[in-house]
Amino acid sequence: MDELDTTAAIDSVEAIVDSFYQAISFRTGEQPDWTQLRELFTPGAQHIYARSESTRLIDLETFTTRFREQIETGELNGFSEIDAARQTELFGDVAHVFSIYETRFATGDSMNSARGVNSIQLLKDEGRWWIVTILWNDESQDDPTLAD
Q: Looking at the predicted structure, is the pLDDT value of residue 147 above 50?
């Protein structure tokens, strides 16, 4: 994937969210942009996976370690996540982005897809935007909450 321009990636809420989606996506045989991912998040940032059976709260290091392990073991061969629709609310140096995502990912010989919602909280500090928290939930067959 193309190297991301860190300065442009942090100038606006829209740019940092776009940069997140670009950094996490990778083609078969490649890796996500681990450096860029780390530069987008505050120290102590949280990833929260909201699931009906159990919610998972993990820090950025654990998230990237687990993601990297899936790639290195061949469990995950490619991953693309895009922002299909977005609503942004801004108040001073705080922003909230409600982003409907669509994901395509390769596991073994099959291509899969999913969609869901990323609730992204951001903070502007020292003249730039930072991602503080990403809370996400995948749409399921039992709960198709994302209307077409």
A: no
Q: Helix or strand or coil: residue 136?
A: strand
Residue 80 lies in a domain: yes
Mean pLDDT of the chain: 88
The amino acid at 116: G
Containing structural domain, residue 117: 6-138
What's the pLDDT tens digit per position in 11-50? 899 999 999 999 999 998 899 999 999 999 999 999 998 8
Long-range contact set of residues 100-105: C-beta below 8 Å, sequence gap at least 24: 100/146, 101/21, 101/136, 103/79, 104/78, 104/79, 104/80, 105/76, 105/78, 105/79, 105/80
Tell me the C-alpha distance between 83 and 18, whole Å: 8
Whole-number Å distance between alpha carbons of 53 and 85: 27
Residue 41 lies in a domain: yes
Could you tell me if residue 146 is inside a domain?
no
* Alpha carbon 124 to chain centroid, angstroms: 18
Taken as a whole, the chain contains a residue count of 148
